[in-house]
Write a structure and sequence with these properties.
Layout: E1 5-12, E2 21-31, E3 37-39, E4 52-55, H1 64-70, H2 74-77, H3 83-90, E5 96-100, H4 103-112, E6 120-124, H5 125-132, H6 141-148, H7 150-156, H8 163-181, H9 186-196, H10 215-218, H11 222-234, H12 239-251
Parallel strand pairs: 1-5, 5-6
Antiparallel strand pairs: 1-2, 2-3, 2-4
Helix pairs in contact: 5-8, 6-7, 6-8, 11-12
Amino acid sequence: MNTPAMIIDFEATDVSKEAEATQLGYRNVFFDERGMLWGDPLPLDREAPYSNYVFCKPDRAISYGAMAVSHILPVDVHNELSHTEVADLLLPKGEAYIIGHNVDYDIQVAANAGVNVSQYKRICTQAMARSLMPDMDSHSLGALTYFIHINRGRNHLRNTHNAGYDVTFTLWLLEHLCELGNITSMEQLYLASEEARIPKIMPIGEEQGHKGKLIADMARNTNDRGFLRWVVKTIKNRPYLVQACEKALEVKGG
């Protein structure tokens, strides 16, 4: 049995780690026998380029900042199913590939709705875009959509931060990334995402003068190497950064 794969996008109450869903966009995707990526056909009652999407009622108040972004107000979700019911009904159970632009945020919102996300294999299109499209001046979903489909972008990007549209924009981006990376299977896509998420440039340590340095180069300097060891021993919430530091230290016999 093939492992399910789904692009998701949540609109939520706020941007905190406790954020709860106000809208979920979702679309199943798969590779065919030729290695081409496809999304499931959309329902006939939905106008292109919408994906499947539903509103849901959070337990938390919707922040004004979130309202300004998504234009979802409390009155819009008052009579909808709760965020926990919607997530339980629509998100995969068990092992699944979950795809999103900054996917960790969406996974956190799913977890806040009570979903067991422990077996989800996360694929981050934002990390992959930064790796495969390094010369872009912005790696926001909107900017990347304009780059890939400028006319579609002009027609549809005014609907950014509608979860249904954002899922479709993510699918367009994913198709482009698979073409750039010659990716023809979901596991290959997942491994490419994992590799892309390992940072090459140190994102912390500004006060100590380490931020902005190439991590691979830091292992050659005694002081910098000490900072890499400190990251490995101390930082608990950035596993990809720790992995990058460990790899650099191993290469240089750290």
